[in-house]
Amino acid sequence: MTYLDHAASSPVRREVLAAMSPHLTTEFGNPSSVHGAGERARAALDDARRRVARVVGARPNDVVFTSGGTEANNLGIKGIAIAAMLARGARHVVTSAVEHSSVLESVRALQRIHGFDATILPVDDAGLVDPSDVDGALRDDTAVVAIGYANNEVGTVQPVAEIERACAARGVPLHLDAVQAAGWLPLAATRHGSLALSGHKIGAPKGTGALVVPVRIPLEPLLHGGGQERGRRSGTESVAGAVALATALELADAERVAAAERVRLSRDRFVDAVLARVPGAALTGHPTRRLPHIASFTIAGANGETVLTDLERRGVIASSGSACSAATEDASHVLLALGIDDDLARTAVRFSLPPTVTGLDAVADALADAVSSHRDRSADSVGSSL
Questions:
Q1: Which domains does the chain have, with CATH numbers?
Q2: Catalytic residue positions?
């Protein structure tokens, strides 16, 4: 079986399992306890915090461990926005139409619960946000801007440096969803906002993640209790999870440059093969400004879910887009925002590659065969009904 859905989740690395294993077995102390077992747990947690901070260029105290990317996005967006609301009455947020559901739903929750106004910025047909649109949307009462570093469905990489400059000039924090960027793009924590990370995209277990946010930026906690994580995220910390995230992040960052170039070349050859062999296939997202491991296509005249089912029978696992939106029957909001019509958006197939990948020529053949088989069955069905 060829698994090409790494943007949804990746296998846990052996090195990560080895690093976290003691904290699931012999070293099980609570890091808030004052006895020896608790002190050893605290030391391991603090070390993991330093290691994560080192990779993203932040201070250790800026790292808040979370249960994953969704919680990190919720805490970064809601926590900063609510703190700004309490401090100065700010009730405006800015985001884009192509964000992950955890970003968009956090914004909608601020609207619904706290009466925030939201500006949802459009994107061009490649999925890019215009930094001048961000600048034009900022207001005196803007609490936070929330943008994804790179899109999880089509792979488009946003001009985050320009967006951050626009935000910094107005003193507005930028929350950056970097869940898909980790392991593929440079991770430099925003100096004027927050950064969300998730472990299970880079070889750590599900349920691991972090929000990186400077301590000088006010952050209202969403979870209340014992005041762990310096009062920003209560709850007994998962020491094993923190160690796993730090280990996976270090490994991914050390391999990033070589892996990105290697996979980009393989992906480009794969894209060319698909476009040559599958009539009606079109690449979505930006043609060059994109994550090196994502290739997403629409295939005119096909049904994306049917093609994916046929692909799996042929030994290839891919997806139609975000796993977090797979339960809905609606067409992808990302593809619709790119100007793709509803029917064509439902034909989408996304391949997301691992750092080491082979056999993509056979995958292109399998996709061509699956699409051809689907079209033949559709034609037979139409013919029999006449």
A1: 13-252 (3.40.640.10), 256-379 (3.90.1150.10)
A2: 324
What CA–CA distance (Å, rounded) separates 10 from 137? Answer: 36
* In the predicted structure, residue 32 carries a pLDDT above the cut 70: yes
Estimate the crossing angle of helix 304-313 against helix 360-385, to 10 degrees.
120
Q: Give the number of other Cβ atoms within 10 Å of residue 207's Cβ.
A: 16
For helices 69-88 and 101-114, the axis angle rounded to 10 degrees is 30
| Beta-bridge partner residues of 282 | 298
Q: Which residues, including other chains, have CB under 8 Å from residue 156's CB and lie 6 or more apart?
A: 98, 123, 126, 127, 128, 150, 285, 286, 289, 290
Question: What angle is formed at CA 76 by the lines to CA 70 and CA 77, rounded to 5 degrees?
Answer: 90
Q: Sort 296 into a burial class: Cβ within 10 Å, 0-12 / 13-18 / 19+.
A: buried
Please tell me the distance from the alpha carbon of residue 48 to that of residue 250, in angstroms, as a whole number. Answer: 10
Do 133 and 158 contact (CB within 8 A), yes or no?
Answer: no
100's torsion region: left (phi>0), alpha (psi -120 to 50) or beta? beta
Tokens encoding 195: 């950064």
Q: Give the helix ranges, DSSP H, for the chain.
A: 14-20, 36-56, 69-88, 101-114, 131-137, 160-169, 239-277, 304-313, 333-337, 342-345, 360-385
pLDDT given at position 150: 97
Determine contact, residues 30/36, Cβ cutoff 8 Å: no
Express each pLDDT in 274-317 by its tens digit. 999 999 999 999 999 999 999 999 999 999 999 999 999 999 99
Length of the chain: 386
The SS3 assignment for 337 reads: helix
Cα–Cα dist 96/129, whole Å: 7
From CA 115, how far away is CA 109, in angstroms rounded?
A: 9
Question: How is the chain split among helix, strand and coil, in percent rounded to 5?
Answer: 45, 15, 40
Task: Work out whether the CA dihedral 366, 372, 376, 381 comes out positive or negative.
Answer: positive
- Residue pair 69/196 in contact (Cβ under 8 Å)? The answer is yes
CA angle 314, 316, 318 (to 5 degrees): 135
